[in-house]
Amino acid sequence: MTTVRTPRPRSIDELAATFRDQFDADPDGVWFAPGRVNIIGEHTDYNDGFVLPIALAEGTWVAARRRDDDTVRLHTDSPDVSDPTVTLRLGDVHEGQSVGWASYAAGVGWAAAQRGLDVPGLDLAVTSNVPTGAGLSSSAALSCGTARAWVDLAGWSLSDTEVADLGRDAENHIAGAPTGLMDQLASVCGQAGHAMQIDTRSVQITQIPFDLTAQGLALLVIDSRAPHALVSGEYAERRQSCQEAAQALGVSSLRDASVSDLDDLPDLLQRRARHVITDSARVEQVASLLTDGSDPRTIGPLLTQSHVSMRNDFEITVPVTDLIAETAVRAGAYGARQTGGGFGGCVIALVDDDAAETVAQACVAAASAGGFNQPTSFVAVPSDGARRLS
User: Fold this and answer.
1) Per the residue annotation, which of 169, 183, 223, 313 is the catalytic one?
2) Where in the numbering of this chain does the GHMP kinase C-terminal domain appear (predicted)?
């Protein structure tokens, strides 16, 4: 039985044909933006801490054509949306007004207008092979792919960070997802064969070699198929708790606090802050090990420590991701942790490349025995960020 399956990439020609069917014209071009998987550092981004994501080979393809008015027409082939075709005017898009999945794309135009840019309308057809609800930033891939297309077609002169910021504003203000900037930076700034250590305070990105294949290793992504939702109250509560902890400590963010400062905080705030502080420190440890040329296997225990912290202190894991992480380590992984915003989604496991199938099958068996959905798995390959394809 083959358990590890790489999602099928989408064809540019097929997407262009879909565009022609929908809009009776050829697209001006096709763009791609990847999803991301975060190696370590969860909920540290909005606390001015460090994160360490990679851009995936999986992502979203965007076929686009510039219009002469302020209309945006969008179409997706995703089976997960109830309204695959949406038409709206940019002038009608405003903060707090979600238009479903189209918010992640149309919101980019709103964000650009807030910066005083001249924003033309667009026709957009999109397709993706990032699993939705899996914590792999399918939404950032959509917003950043759209942003890259809009930048090129409108002729805006924006840095990569500014392109990523358009995507974040679309998610925060139109889609209503309170994300930090990590997802979008990873989608825009990824480099093949590298992880990105991002200082979210200075928005400084350090590209760190992360070629696991050369070391006989693989980063196995195990989708628990327990979907998460960043717009839920649980995510907002964690963010609010971090803000309250920082205020109680008299610092602007938890980046400026240490574990020794936490003794006088209420138990809940103490645990929330401890996770953020220690996970940000683990990012620096992992980055240091990789930069120094250490065997990547040495980062495994830090991944497992991160999962324990998310489970006990930040309380964002769920029974099935706990089970998968524990099973992966028992089956031979060097370390495993839930990745993404939490409350479901994916687990990553650092494994020998010839053990990926064995570990994946062990996780399937454990989930089945526990009465959970059967997980699916693929191997994550660090890849390039958002770019024009044609």
Assistant:
1) 183
2) 294-363
